[in-house]
Each structure stands twice: as C-alpha cells, then as structure tokens.
C-alpha cells in the first residue's frame, strides 16, 4: 500500500474510534475552562481574558487528549496482538509514521473546528477590539500547538517505552511541569503551548507572536528529532529496544536528520534574539560610572527607519554635537539596546574604532569608543537591530521598547544610543526624523510634526524635545482629544479602536474630572510648549506610568472588563474618571505609609471619584453608589473568617494566604481608604478637607517625602487614627 | 452472591470511565477548595459545615453523572441482551438485583468518599484542621439524598430506555443554572451562601424545615425507586 492509501485507511479507522471523538470533544470544550477555571495569562485586556486564556487552556487540554489518542493508537495493535501480522505485510516504521500523521491530521481538523466554534463568541466579547488576524494567529500558534506537541511527544515516548501507562504518565508530567513556576519564567521552556502573558487589544501582540512562533519552531525541531530517534526503536522481529535500534540504524537518513534537527533546535535556543543576558542578581550589580565630564553634549539629531514591521527591526543614524574641553582624546561610552548592533561610528567624518562591552544590563549594553582631541566633534553612530527584552521581565513578556505594524514604543537607548557625558543644559535639543506607515500617528514627549507622505505607504514625522535627551515616542492608530484643565491643554491620545467607548459621556466625564481635580487640588504643572499628554499604551506595560510630560495609561483601562469594574465606579464613564484622577493621585503625588499598607492612591482616587459624582449626579446618587457600597464591602470584609480569626491566616500556606490577603487588600485599598477619607470629611467638613487635600497635593507629605502618609493626612486634618479607623 | 457482588463491583470500578470521573471529581474538587472554599462561605470558616456543604453541592453534578455512569453498565443494550442468559440461571432475580444495587451504591459512596477525603486532606494541609466529625451532617444532608435519588430514578429511566440515563445526567447542570426555590437551594449551593447570613456569626449547621422535607422526600423517593427495581422486576 502506498503511504497515501495507508494514511486514508488509518484516518478512517481513527474516525470510527470512540476515543478519537472523546479527544475531539475534550479539545472542543477545553477553551471553556479558560474563561474562569484556569487563567494562565496575567493581562487584563479583553484579548487576554477572552482569547489568550481560552486558547491556552484549550491547547493544554488538547495536548493531553491527543497524546492519549496517539498512545491508544500505538497501543492498539500491541493489545490486540496483531502487530506480528501487520509487521509481516508493512514496515512497522512506515505504519508508525502513518499513525502519527493521522493523529496530527485529526488534531489539525479539530483545532480548525474549535477555532470556528469559538469565533462568534470571541468576536462578540471583544467587540470593538476584535481582530480576525489575531484570532487565527492565536488558534494556530497557541491552540494548535498543544495537540501537535502532545502528539509528537507521546509518539516518541511510547516508541521508546512501549508501555501506554508509562508513556501517559511521562507526557502528563511534562505538561504539568511546563505550567509550573520554573518553566513560566522562560519563553523557550514552554514546550506544549507558548508563553502568553497577555494579548493587546489595540497595539498588536507582535512580541507574543514572534516569541511564540520562535519557540514553536525550536520545539518542533527538538520533538521531531526525538521522534525520528524513537522511530529507530520501533520494535521489529520480536527484538527489544536496543536490538531494534541497532537494526534500524541502517536507515542512516533517520539519525542524521534527527541530529540535524536537534542541533538546529539547540542553536536556535542558544541564540534566541528576544531576551537579553542581564545578570540574574541585577539588584546587587553596580554598574560603573562611565560618565565623561570632559565632554558636553550640545544637541542630538536622530534619523530612524523601521526596517521591518514584521520582525520589529529598526536602523538609525544618530548625530551628536559634542564639545571636548580637555584638549585631549577622550574615552566615550554610550548605552544601546541589547538587541542593536553598532554598524559604524565616525567623528568629524573619520571612522572611529568601537568596542561592544557585551555587558547586558536591563536590556541595554555599553559601547566604548575614543573621540579625537578636537574641541568640536560631530559624532555619528549608525546602528540597527531588534529591541530586546530584559530577562527579569521575560516571565511578563514586558518589553521596554517594541516595534510592530500596529504599535511602536521607543525611548532612551531603545531609540538611539544614549551618550554617557554631561549635557550643555536642560534645553539641549534632540530631534527625530522617522518614516512611519501612513496608518500610524506619532506621539512624542516633545512636539511632533507630520511631514509629507512619501508615496510608498509611509509618511515622514519630525519630533523635537529638549532636556535630558530622553525623547520618548509612541506610534499607532492614535487619535487625540484636547481636554482643557487649569488653563493648559491636556492632550489625550488613544487608539482609534476605543472611539466608540469614548464617544458617549466618556470624554465629557474625563473633562469634568480634570476640571474637578485642577479646581480642588491644583493643576498639573505643564507649559503650552510642552503640553501634558496622556497616552494610551500597550497592555505589555502592565498599568500606567509617568515620565516628563507623558503619562501612560494602560490600554486595559478602556477594556469593557475594566469599564464594568464596580470597585472603580458605578459605570464605565466613572471608571474613566477614576483613571484620569490617578493623574493627580498616583502620578502627580503618591500616597504610601510604612505602617499602613492599605493607605494607597486607590482609596484617594476612589474618594475623589465619589466627590466628582456627587457634584455631577447629586449627593443621593453618590451616596448610594459609593458610600453605601464602601460600607457594605468593608463590613463584609471585617466579618470574613480570616479577619475574625487571623490565627488561621498565619497557618495557611503562602499561596493561599496571599490570595486571601489580596482579596482583603483590594477592599481596603479602594473602599476602606475611601471610607476613611469620607469619615474625615464628616468630622472636619467638606470644605476643610478639600483645603487639606489641596495642600497635601501641592506641598507633598512631610513624614516620608515625597509620599503622603496617613500620618500627614491625619495631622493636616487634626484627627487621630482611631477617629476614622477602618471598619 | 459474594462473588457476584465482587464481580459487579469490579465491573463498575475497574474501567476507564470510573477513573476518568474520579479524576474529574478530584480536579474540580481541588479547584473549588483552593479557589472558593478556602475563603469560607458566608463569612464562616472554610472547614465549617456550611462551606463543606457548599463544596459538596457544587460537586453534586459530577457525582450525579458518576452515579448514572455506573448505571449505564446495568441498563445498556448489551446488558439487556445478556439479561436473557442471566435470567436463565438459578440465581434469585431479586437477590441479583439487590447485589447490583449494593455494588452501585458502594461505587457511588467511593466517589463521594474520594471527594470527602480530598476535602479532609486539604483542610489538614492548609489549616491543620482535623475535626472531621462535624462534617457528617452536611454530608448526609446535602449529598446523600440527591445521589440516592439519582440511582433510583436513573435505574427507572434506564430500564425504560438506555439513552434516557444520558439525558438525565444533564439534570443537575440545568438545575444549577435555574433560580430555585429555597427548599431546593442545596442543589446549586445558593442556600448555603445565603442562609448563614441570616443567623448569628459562626452558626451551627441548621437548615430551614422546607429544605429538610425536600431532602427527606428525595431520599425516600430514591429508596422507593431502588426498591421498585429490586422487587418488581428483579434483573436489569
């Protein structure tokens, strides 16, 4: 029989088996568990919750189910004792290979059916942020990976062990191990399904797709190599493993191909291009101070090009105007992203030798060069490559700089070399010229100007900033709304995908929140030239952050899931107000107390949201939706078993105790602290409390500067802790 | 009859369905214990009869399915054909049916016992708690009546048509999704979450009279239906 005919027969046999349909059913139902029971992704974007988690869980269940099917398929001739008969008619190696391909074909068909089955629901849940491309990428790279890898491993192990029970135990142990704490720290250690910590709703998940594809290729090489080796061990003529192995060695192509694939997988593993090699004890590592005070930077011009959106590579030419006051040649170090390589360095047009120090530290490495003794030097550095991820953040897949067709975020040494010298002044200019896809809009920390289209699908952009040279850029399908607050413009940049969520009262309420905070606490201090920019950023930054005039707001703040969070506001518009108020409490000033871990920005922000709503929607509404809710949840928290019996919390294993504490912390951070501030308001009056908060906001705290402690707050209110204590 | 009993029990337990359901019960039980029960139900301790009852109520659909799977061994088409042969033997049909009933109930208790053992190990490991006697009442009140009813009603339905047993497996899943009256609140555990809140802190395990009546009726109905299968037609 030809291989094709054998394959048809084997596939037909599989289709008649009950176990086949059990494996199909398990894989079809597997993603359901990802909606609630098992959520391996950390991210809280809609795509993380309703695409990544179901696909990962489905992939894992599919891996176990198809591994079992593969094992049963190999076991069947042994159990029914027909192997001797079939071996007389057909090569057992060919039969084994055909059985593998049949199960793999069933796996592919099942995954296709699963993809089609969950498509409507995923589309419905993701709604405005749904991407058909991302959906099928997730199906192919995450869901399909499980059954394929599980089948390959099961076949290989069984052909060595020739025992279903042992093989099944090994495969299941490998699946469990791959989901353990150790494997979750390394994207390449995930043999079964790739490491997916989050999926972006609006700015693409290129980091995940690239690492997932790369790790699948590595594991396909390794497992196929193992499988080819195991083929040599397929028993024949009643011989054992070693006898069969020795006999099959005459098929020299098999071990050669296995060795080639193993070597290929090994090389790809060792030379992965995504993660840097920072020291594992990075906290105790003290980088040397390389800053050269004899050199002064007068200005920087950067010309950058995106070489490939698919691979996320950039090349650039950075030109620096440097003054050398020493009259001697000077050693200069500059930092560059670990994924970039220097291509050429020139000083005043003359080539300069450089040395890559290969000292990765937080996704950057140092390069050393020697500048001539001339006073005015124009240093030009040509560089390029793909930004790397800091290895300490590998388990989060959080990259400081990234480039994809849907979003770009670059700053510091991830954008251009950062010279280690002194600046001529705070106004030292830095400019950037970059061509981006027509569909992209550039947002930068300074001023940005759109240039003319190039006619090749790209448009030139020019950005200027001044100061520490830390130009920060974002690009994506950004839209801008200008919000007025405190007499200065606030630019709110967000992905066009979220326009429907912001089209209603969302923007109005954000505007009201800015007005409220500016009026009651004080303005954020920004100038007309360098306006305050709130920029929506990718989910891989895991939350918000602030730097210079840029305040980043994680994209999941706008997800339907977050907008429905009752902790932050009664409806989605109020949650948006909550996130805007964080620009004052959290990013403007911060609350912290060494003695009360629950004294955080969240409580103050929640209280401010309540006050805003009291102004906008009336006291009755605010009291019913905020104060009464705080009283209810804090009362429930106080009644909970572990609050009443902390001695049991002490004996709980750490993981469970952390979970219990996290639930209690969540109540205390948001509702408990807000209720404390509300009680203070009741004691000293609303007007006086507003004056206290304004003073704390503008002057900061005194006990633990710049943080505002609970003690600062109580002192300012002339209150004792017991008077406004938690429930 | 001892040999017949052992043989029937072996048929029920030494097969992939039993191990599959056992694995599902243990896995889901662990997820429930570590995800929900560990926090305690209705502000009571995780090891309180209320929390334990809630755990059993949530596991009930799987235990129900397991019990009905055991029954499929007695009600399948293949078994009906074999019944002609077993009917021709000298064994008393009632005693034979009684032995099967015993094997079925023992299998069911083993599944339930595995879930209880899991909870006991979990409480001992996480909270160093060992007062397991206090869990007997919720065990008898929450789990036993519906499972005995599942055995009796399932056997009746399977006797009429083997495929009805599979349809009957869906009953607790459907019930758990419906807003049930208080008397049936143990089926989906809602009563165990709400009723303690109406009592003083850390209340002893008590249930409204309507619930006791409903559970008692279920148990009685289950026993009667099993009795009918044993004494009316004997085999099958």
Describe what you observe in this structure.
The complex is a heterodimer of chains A (about 725) and B (about 240). With about 725 residues, chain A is α+β, with helices and mostly antiparallel strands. Helices cover about 45% and strands about 20% of the residues of chain A. In chain A, the strands form four sheets. In chain A, strands 1, 2, 4, 5, 8, 12, 13, 15 and 16 form a nine-stranded mixed β-sheet that branches. The termini of chain A are far apart. Chain B is mostly helical. Chain B is about 75% helix and about 0% strand. The mean pLDDT of chain B is about 85. Chains A and B meet through helix 18 and helix 20 of A and helix 5 of B.
Show the helix and strand layout:
The complex is a heterodimer of chains A (727) and B (236).
Chain A: H1 3-15, H2 18-33, H3 46-79, H4 83-89, H5 92-126, H6 132-143, H7 145-161, H8 164-178, H9 206-232, H10 241-248, H11 253-270, E1 292-308, E2 313-324, E3 330-337, E4 340-347, E5 350-351, E6 354-356, E7 364-371, E8 376-385, E9 402-403, E10 407-411, E11 418-419, E12 421-423, E13 429-437, E14 441-444, E15 447-453, E16 458-466, E17 472-476, E18 478-485, E19 488-495, H12 499-502, H13 506-520, E20 532-537, E21 545-547, E22 550-554, H14 560-563, H15 572-581, H16 601-617, H17 619-639, H18 641-644, H19 646-651, H20 654-684, H21 686-699, H22 710-717
Parallel strand pairs in A: 1-12, 1-13, 19-20, 20-22
Antiparallel strand pairs in A: 1-2, 2-8, 3-7, 3-11, 4-5, 4-8, 6-7, 9-10, 10-17, 13-16, 14-17, 15-16, 18-19, 21-22
Helix pairs in contact in A: 1-5, 2-3, 2-5, 3-5, 3-6, 3-7, 3-8, 5-6, 5-7, 6-9, 7-8, 7-9, 9-11, 13-15, 13-16, 15-16, 16-17, 16-20, 17-20, 20-21, 21-22
Chain B: H1 2-13, H2 16-35, H3 49-75, H4 77-87, H5 93-127, H6 136-160, H7 162-168, H8 171-177, H9 190-194, H10 209-233
Helix pairs in contact in B: 1-5, 2-3, 2-5, 3-5, 3-6, 3-7, 5-6, 5-10, 6-7, 6-10
